[in-house]
Amino acid sequence: MRRLLVAGNWKMNASVTSTEQLLTGVLGQLGSECDVAVFPPFPYLAQAVQTLAGSGVSVGAQNVAAEEAGAFTGEVSAAMLADVGCQMAIVGHSERRTLYGESDELVLAKTRQLLAHGLVAVVCVGETLDERKAGREEAVVAAQMALLIRDLAVADWDRIVLAYEPVWAIGTGETATPEQAQAIHAFIRAQLQQVGADVAEKTRILYGGSVKAANAAELFAQPDIDGGLVGGASLDATEFTGICRA
Ligand code: 13P
């Protein structure tokens, strides 16, 4: 049985004060319904780790370097994330793929860095509106998963979470219907059969794209949706914990 995970991707939104307020608010309203993780911007990771110590809520980064260490100005390594107490990082978010040109090769390299340092990689996949209109969503997602499926070892999948985020549903208020989301989640799980039946059964696949407390329950009720990667709604403690309760 897969345990649901609700992950809050704060994107480029935070301050010392808002981080404290948001996390205190979340802790005050959170039950133990599911696994919970937050992904603040880099400067607030250590603060989040400290504030959430002992709470069971995990802290992750929104990105990581593809290299181990050295002369890579502006980059943050997986070793550094582990050192400050992070347990996870997001890789391959569509905003990184489209705005910063991240390729599937780079996503694989970043994933390998996270795995090498004992961190969980939350790997994002998803199609654009044009790709969906052309009926290419399965082909796009399969291509984004192909290198991971080919190059990672079976044991690596213990520390991989996939997140399906249709680009047209991110920050737009437009959510995939539960049926649309379930269909592609089932497709993603079927792709994982190439790694093995056990991996396909155990790997968590999160849905992301305008998830709110009001629509989370019907999304999470789908058999192949194992939680959510939440953007905007993760910046509000009541809304975010509402999603966790769903
Ligand atoms: P929204 O929940 O704001 O649509 O963002 C989704 C997302 O990109 C999470 O990574």
Provide a descriptive summary of the structure in words.
The mean pLDDT is 97. Helix 1 runs parallel beside helix 11 (237-245), helix 7 (137-151) packs parallel to helix 8 (178-192) and helix 10 (213-220) runs parallel beside helix 11 (237-245). The chain has 246 residues and is α/β, with parallel strands linked by helices. Strand 2 (35-39), helix 2 (45-51) and strand 3 (58-61) form a beta-alpha-beta unit. The protein has a single domain (5-245), classed as Aldolase class I (TIM Barrel). Helices cover 42% and strands 15% of the residues. The protein has eleven helices and eight strands. An eight-stranded parallel beta barrel has the order 1-2-3-4-5-6-7-8, surrounded by six helices. The radius of gyration is 17 Å and the shape is globular. It binds 1,3-dihydroxyacetonephosphate. The site of 1,3-dihydroxyacetonephosphate (13P) has 14 residues, from strand 8. 1,3-dihydroxyacetonephosphate binds at residues 9, 93, 165, 170-171, 208-211, 229-233.
Layout of helices and strands:
Blueprint: E1 5-9, H1 16-29, E2 35-39, H2 45-51, E3 58-61, H3 78-83, E4 88-91, H4 94-99, H5 104-116, E5 120-125, H6 129-133, H7 137-151, E6 160-164, H8 178-192, H9 197-202, E7 205-208, H10 213-220, E8 227-230, H11 237-245
Parallel strand pairs: 1-2, 1-8, 2-3, 3-4, 4-5, 5-6, 6-7, 7-8
Helix pairs in contact: 1-11, 7-8, 10-11
The structure holds 1,3-dihydroxyacetonephosphate (13P).
1,3-dihydroxyacetonephosphate binds next to strand 8.
